[in-house]
Design a protein that fits this description.
Elements: E1 2-7, E2 12-18, H1 22-41, H2 44-60, H3 62-73, H4 77-97, E3 105-108, E4 111-119, E5 122-126, H5 132-145, E6 149-153, H6 160-171, E7 179-181, H7 186-195, E8 199-205, H8 208-219, E9 224-228, E10 234-237, H9 243-255, E11 267-271, H10 275-287, H11 307-314, E12 323-324, E13 338-341, H12 347-350, E14 357-363, H13 366-374, E15 381-385, H14 389-398, E16 403-406, E17 425-426, E18 439-447
Parallel strand pairs: 5-6, 5-8, 6-7, 8-9, 10-11, 10-15, 11-14, 13-14, 15-16
Antiparallel strand pairs: 1-2, 3-4, 4-18, 9-17, 12-13
Bound molecules: nicotinamide-adenine-dinucleotide.
Amino acid sequence: MTLTVVNPATEEPIAELERAGVDETDEAVARAREAFPAWRAVAPGDRARLLRRVATLVEENTDELARIESRNVGKPISGARGEIGMVAQVFHFYAGAVDKHGGETIPVAGGVAATFREPLGVVGLIVPWNFPANIASWKLGPALACGNTVVLKPAELTPLSALRLGELCLEAGIPEGVVNVLVGKGSVVGQRLIEHPEVAKIAFTGSTEVGRLVMQGAAGTIKRVTLELGGKSANVIFEDADLEKAAAAAPYSVFDNAGQDCCARSRVLVQRSVYDRFLDLLVEATRGVKVGDPADESTEMGPLVSASHRETVASFVEGEPTFRGDVPDGPGYWYPCTLVEASNDDRVAREEVFGPVAAVIPFDDEADAIRISNDTPYGLSGSIWTRDGARALRVARATDAGVLSVNANTSVRVQTPFGGFKQSGFGRELGMHALEGYSEVKSVFISTEG
Ligand code: NAD
C-alpha cells in the first residue's frame, strides 16, 4: 500500500512511498543478521573512519537534509539546519567513541577476569516524527559504534530524512545490510521488529502509550529495550531569578518545534510573589514569536505535523486562554502560541499536549515548587531559574527528571546523557552512556595457575 507524505505547512503531497509489511521487515532483519558478523569484526579504527565519513557527508549535505526535514515536519529552516548540524556532531562523537569503550581487568582468586563489550546483534530503532533525523542519529551512532547492525523505522508522517540518512551511510562505505531503513506502520513493521526473535534490542522513542506496548511485546523474547517517552516538564521560576532573561528564554522552551518536543517545559511554575510581573513578561515574549512559512529564514515556529494532531492539541484549551497568538491564513496545520493559567490538577498540566500550549502555575516556596514539579507521572526534563546557586542544586537534586538545566532551557547535548525518570522511560541516549545500551558486558576468567 502506498504512503503519501505531506508538507504540513501547505497540506500538499511531497512524496509517495511503498509501505513495508511483515515480509519486508523479515527480509530487512535477515539482511541485518547476515551483515552482523562482518560488521562486528571491522577493526575499531576502520569503523570509526566510516562513522566519521557519515558525519562529513551529513555536513556536506546539510542544506538538502535541512530542507527535507523542514518540508516534511514543518520545522523552520534555521532550526532544521541546527538539527542536521547535531546529526553530524553525533556521528563525529561516536566515531571518536568506537575505540574508547573498552573493558576492565579485575583481580580475582586464581587468575584474572577481563570484561569485554560485545555488540547485541540486530537492533530495531523506532523513532517518532518530531525530530526524525536527530533521534535516528542518536540511535544509529552508538548502535553502529558498538558493532551492531540495525533496522531503522521512522514515523510514517516523517520518513524522508531517515531514508536519505540511510543512503548517506551506504555512500560513506558502511556495507550493505548494516543499516536498513523501513517505511511502514508502527503496528505492522514496528510490532514485527518488537516480536522478531532475531532482533536483540528495540531502541524506542515515542509516546508513553506505545512504550508500554514495546515493553509488553519485548517480553516474549526477553528483548532488551530502551524507552525514550513523553514528558511534562517544569520551567521553575524563583522570585530571585533574572526574570527578564527567564521570560525571554521561556517561549523557546515550549514553542520550539511548535511544542512538539518531549522536553517542552509545558508547565511554567512561577513563585507567587513575582507571578503577575513574570506573566506580563512572558506574554510579551510569546507575542514576539514569529510564526509562519518554515522556509523563511526568520521564522521561529511552523505548523503542527497533521490535522488530527491539531485537533488533539486544541482539545486541551477550554475557554479563553490568557494569551493566544496569531497564525497565518490559508492551508497548513497551524496552531497559535497559547498561554493558559492553570492549576497542576488541570488536564492541560497533567497530560502531554505536544503543541504550543503552556500552563502557567503559581507556587509558594521552594518545597511547593519541588512538590508541583514532581507531581506528574513523567520525569524527562526541566529548568530551574534562580540566582541562588545552592538552591539551584537543591532543587535539581530533588527533581525526579533525567535532564535539567539551571538558568537555561536546553536539554540536549551530544556529550551528555539524555533520558527519563518514571514514565518518561529508561536507558540513556547520547554521550558515552548511550554505549551501555548497545552492548553486553562479558566477563572472561583466565586462570594463572600452573
Ligand atoms: P508514537 O509513540 O505514536 O510513535 C513513535 C514510533 O512508534 C513511530 O515510528 C510509530 O510508527 C511507532 N509505533 C506506533 N505504534 C507502534 C506499535 N504498536 N508497535 C511498534 N511501533 C509503533 O509517538 P509519536 O507521536 O511519533 O511521537 C510523539 C511522542 O514521542 C511524544 O509522546 C513525545 O514526548 C515522544 N518523544 C520522546 C522523546 C524522548 O527522547 N524522550 C523524543 C521525542 C519524542
